[in-house]
Amino acid sequence: MDTFDTQETTITDDQSDRTSPKHPDEDTNPPALTPGRFAGLKATSLEWFRTLRSIFPIYIGVHLAFLVITCLAPLYGIRDFAWGSVPIHTLWQSWHHWDTGHYLIIATRGYDVYYRTAFFPLYPILERVGMVFTHNNPFTAGLLISNIAGLVMLVVLYRLVKEDFDQERAFRTVLYLSVFPTAFFFAAAYNESLFLCLSLLSFYEMRHGRWWLAGLFGFLAGLTRPVALLLLIPFAMNICSNTSFASKLFVSISSVAHLSQPA
């Protein structure tokens, strides 16, 4: 009798499960953004914001110095320091020198002569895109790109040094790089700040084991300057030290090689 009751109860439960309506949006998978993951994203965002707040005084101070130099430098080429003969709106043209012209020509006309192939394409491409926001002025777009990349570069450098040492050494590293005598190239319409920014991002992603992002930033750095080819050395060393990723990569390459073999 007890066995019959148990079987009847089981059948009744099964029938109720089959007949009970389910909402079409119900899913047994957990939500993509769990509270714990949201808290982690929030903590990471706050950490990046604190880093930006730490280095921002250095960034602003250096750029204020660049502004003063920009205003005063043209006076030394004018007779009797006549300020009135220098229109204010033309002062920024004092940054238009040397390789800047090559990047502007590539951004507007492409590689018209063979020797300009020494200047890699990513920076002129970004200048071309930036012309949409600067009324078709590639020079202003280049200045914006360089200075934004310079800010990101300092933030990532601070994070890298802080992870290995401490906050004070990270601050000093950013300060010494910013006041280095040739650091003004990071603010000019050159690709130096973009290249160093992408290289540091590649190192940062290597440090945290995000290999595909590290490879992407390294690839973009290679489209900026040819010396980025040397990033393959630390990339390979980090992959070899990470046995799990190296084994997965080896399996993927072996599978591709096997599929590419003729039948």
Task: Furnish the topology, listing elements before pairings.
Layout: H1 2-19, H2 35-72, H3 100-109, H4 122-130, H5 138-164, H6 167-178, H7 192-207, H8 211-222, H9 232-241, H10 243-260
Give a description of the structure:
The protein has 263 residues and is mostly helical. The chain has one domain (53-254). Helix content is 65%, strand content 0%. α2 crosses α5, α4 (122-130) crosses α5 and α5 (138-164) packs parallel to α7 (192-207). The termini are far apart.
Would you kindly provide a brief summary of this structure?
The chain is mostly helical and 263 residues long. It is built from 10 helices and no strands.
* Percentage of residues assigned to helices: 55-70%
Backbone CA Rg? 28 Å
Count of individual beta strands: 0
What's the mean pLDDT score?
79
Count of alpha/pi helices: 10
Unreliable stretches (pLDDT < 50, length at least 5) are: 1-31
Shape: globular
Number of domains: 1
Major β-sheet, in short? none
